[in-house]
Amino acid sequence: MTDTTNTTSTNNAGTTRNTRPIRVLVAKPGLDGHDRGAKVIARALRDAGMEVIYTGIRQTPEMIVEAAIQEDVDAILMSILSGAHMALFPRVMELLKENDVNDVLVAAGGILPDEDLPAIKEMGIKGCFGPGTPLEEIIEFVRNNVQADRLTTEV
């Protein structure tokens, strides 16, 4: 597994850059009360060196976006089993846009019918993961799709 903890590097111009761990918000939108899968994902991301903020169950789109802004996350992963994804996901994406949060990776998992996947991706949700997706696949997706410039600061 690739390490995602803090690192320091110096470029050719002599500028030193620090890289911090990826910060991920794991959220359970709507009235869905089943969170075992979200907790498994949260732990796997943490064990892979990421900082994880877990919102708990029964979160509104407003609560999810507010937490993402307050925590300055690099990615939002939403888990839903209730079937309300086509009502909740558009509102999350709308609120992110209204708040000029356009550099955060958004992905979703849970019970997402195949016929809904094109519409979910059209909303700007980059990854969709169903039951049985290997944890390493989700970890690598996050690592490969978070905007690198969010993780670096010049010293």
Key terms:
155 residues; alpha/beta; five-stranded parallel sheet; three-stranded antiparallel sheet; 5 helices; 8 strands; 35% helix; globular
Strand content: 15-25%
Q: Sheet bearing the most strands, described?
A: 5 strands, parallel
Report the helical percentage. Answer: 25-40%
Q: Please give the count of helices.
A: 5
Uncertain residue segments: none
Basic shape: globular
Distance between the termini: 27 Å
Strand order of the largest sheet: 4-3-5-6-7
Can you count the beta strands?
A: 8
Order of helices and strands: EEEHEHEHEHEHE
- Radius of gyration equals 16 Å
Integer average pLDDT: 88
Q: What would you call the structural class?
A: alpha/beta
Describe the model.
This protein has five helices and eight strands, in the order βββαβαβαβαβαβ. The protein is of the alpha/beta class and 155 residues long. A five-stranded parallel beta sheet has the order 4-3-5-6-7, with helices on both faces. Helix 2 (61-71) packs across helix 3. The radius of gyration is 16 Å and the shape is globular.
Quickly describe the structure.
The protein is α/β, with parallel strands linked by helices. Helices cover 35% and strands 23% of the residues.
Please write out the topology.
Layout: E1 7-10, E2 16-19, E3 23-27, H1 36-47, E4 51-54, H2 61-71, E5 75-80, H3 85-98, E6 105-110, H4 117-122, E7 127-129, H5 135-145, E8 152-154
Parallel strand pairs: 3-4, 3-5, 5-6, 6-7
Antiparallel strand pairs: 1-2, 2-8
Helix pairs in contact: 2-3
